[in-house]
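Page 42, continued from yesterday. The earlier attempt failed because a stray header line got pasted into the input along with the sequence. Redoing it now with the clean sequence only.
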Amino acid sequence: MSEYLTIPAPERPEYVVLLRHDVDYEPTYSLKVAQVEKAHGLKATYYYRTIPGLLLPEVVKAVSSLGHEIGYHYETLAQAKGDMEQAVRLFATELERLRQYAPVRIASMHGNAFKPWDNRDIWQRVSPQDFGLVGEAYRDFDYTVVQYYSDTGRTWNPDRYNIRDHTGVKPNYVIERTDELIALLRARQLKHVCLLTHPERWQDTLPGWLKWAALDVSANMVKLGIKAVRAR
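This time it went through. Structure tokens are written below.
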């Protein structure tokens, strides 16, 4: 994703797929996905959280060694409970910690849907460039050009359960299912597209799949409740 930002717009290829993975949970599973992509000649950007238990240096190093990009999946405003100054300091500290294991040129906020703070608000005070970053996944891409699809809520529909994982711009085609997405890509209906997936959601065993399906259904019910309250 950082490479896309550094190429002048007129020089970008006609067709681009930006593969983005937010590693919210089960970081070891992200390595499996990275290995599958490597086997198919694909490169992606993996955003890792740095909170205890979710930053595994050996995983970050292994994913980077496969040729994938490592990004910082920050949540510092929520960690600082809304204290902006503390959030900015924490961002710098945690970013440098992640950089001990791989180069990091780009960041992406972690939604923290059940907390009242939007982590992107730190960009009202600072900029990604202040930290030696090329950009931020929500802030610095033109989503009128890049069609954005996320598996948040276990659907590609941006409005179904989504609270924070949005760009403010709807894609040209609103879809629900993965087969619809595949059809759009095969028909070349999407010229520049960003596909966000959370690796833990794409399990290759039935117990793992059922676990995350159940967790997603539960989370979606809570999200619907939050959206209903906010709509009043």
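Notes: The helical segments are 2-6, 27-39, 57-65, 76-79, 84-98, 178-186, 206-231.
Reminder to self: strip header lines before submitting.
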